[in-house]
Design goal:
Layout: H1 3-8, E1 13-19, E2 23-24, E3 26-30, E4 37-38, E5 45-51, E6 56-58, E7 67-71, E8 77-82, E9 85-87, E10 96-97, E11 100-101, E12 111-113, E13 121-125, E14 130-132, E15 141-144, E16 150-153, E17 167-171, E18 174-178, E19 195-196, E20 207-208, E21 253-255, E22 269-272, E23 297-301, E24 310-311, E25 317-320, E26 324-326, E27 329-330
Parallel strand pairs: 1-5, 2-6, 3-7, 5-8, 6-9, 7-12, 8-13, 9-14, 12-24, 13-25, 14-26, 24-27
Antiparallel strand pairs: 1-4, 10-11, 15-16, 17-18, 19-20, 21-22, 22-23
Length: 331
């Protein structure tokens, strides 16, 4: 047997990478990251990436996936076993700042596969596991009047830890702002949006920042905003609602959009043009969309789109298992 033939029939290697602790912006670069077990040689390695049960691989920025699997070479194979929670970052809620409004930000990707392997790629999303794109943030709103008051409402942050939007107003005593709620820490709900009361006691002109999005796989409750419709809306849900009262002559009712659940879009910030029953600006729970307005209204700003659950990077990826996947899969 020639030397070349002996090279060709050499046994394949195995390399296993295990994520065993909660990891922000998790990244496995095959061939660069040191395997947990086994060893790697370009072109003849069967690679396994495993996320352990109840472990979070999550992102704190919408432009960065919760887990990135990259590297490798032609001839390698790849198996990803998810037993935990791979979560994209939620988009932040839109903010209102002295009449300057912003739309909600889009959610981020949960799992991105850019590995250059040419062998089979298999994703096993096992029972109890989640792969979930970030929810879109809700849009902000503003109401104005000839009096010295301008009410601005912040949108709710999307599920996956997006921040709520800020709100602002100009009272007779001057300009003031309040912050949106912070995104939830791993396994927790989002923070409650800030509050500024009208110094003259007019509760219809109180302002509330949007609630932050939760960062846990189910019931990712957002932080609260305004407690009742009379003061502009209700927070809660995976994305957190966001709203501020601004009641003028003729009467205006304005609502910031709630953030979307995992992989779901945030709602619009709207101004109603006629009196009508108005649903609270709640965020979507789990993978649900935020509460949509009904009645006659004008769209002031848009909510952000939901993030991808899986970006396959143009590769053929076999996806199996009975775990939960929330959000669109990008080929």
């Amino acid at each position: 047997m020639t030397f070349a033939a002996r090279q060709h029939t050499a046994p394949r290697l195995t390399a296993t990478y295990v994520i065993s602790a909660n990891t922000v912006n998790a990244s496995i670069a095959i061939g660069t990251t040191t395997p947990t077990t086994g060893s790697y040689q370009a072109g003849r390695t069967d690679v396994t990436v495993t996320v352990n049960s109840t472990i979070y691989a999550y992102s704190n920025a919408t432009g960065t996936p919760g887990l990135l699997v990259s590297g490798g070479s032609a001839g390698d194979t790849l198996v990803i076993n998810n037993n935990g929670y791979i979560l994209g970052c939620g988009g932040g809620g839109g903010s209102a700042n002295d009449g300057s409004l912003s739309s909600g930000a889009s959610g981020g990707t949960a799992l991105s596969i850019t590995a250059t392997v040419t062998g089979a790629i298999t994703l096993n999303n096992n029972p109890g596991a989640y792969i979930a794109g970030g929810g879109g943030g809700g849009g902000a709103i503003s109401g104005s009047t000839t009096s010295p008051t301008v009410g601005g409402g912040g949108g709710g942050g999307g599920a996956g830890g997006g921040a709520g939007g800020a709100a602002s107003a100009t009272f007779t005593t001057g300009f003031t702002t309040t912050t949106g709620g912070t995104g939830g820490a791993v396994g927790n709900a989002g923070g409650t949006g800030g509050f500024v009361g009208d110094p003259n006691g007019n509760v219809s002109r109180n302002i509330y920042g949007g609630g932050g999005g939760g960062r846990r796989p189910t019931n990712a409750t957002g932080g609260a905003t305004a407690p009742t419709r009379s003061t502009g809306g209700v927070g809660g849900g995976a994305g957190g609602g966001g709203s501020s009262g601004a009641y003028n002559t003729p009467l205006q009712i304005i609502f910031a959009g709630g953030g979307g659940g995992f992989g779901a879009a945030g709602e619009r910030g709207v101004q109603f043009t006629a009196l009508a029953p108005v649903p609270p600006a709640t965020g979507g729970v789990d993978n649900a969309a935020a509460t949509a307005p009904t009645g006659s209204f004008n769209v002031i700003t848009n909510g952000g789109t939901g993030g991808y659950s899986i970006n396959k990077g143009g590769k053929s990826v076999s996806v199996g298992g009975t775990g939960t996947i929330w959000g669109t899969q990008l080929a």
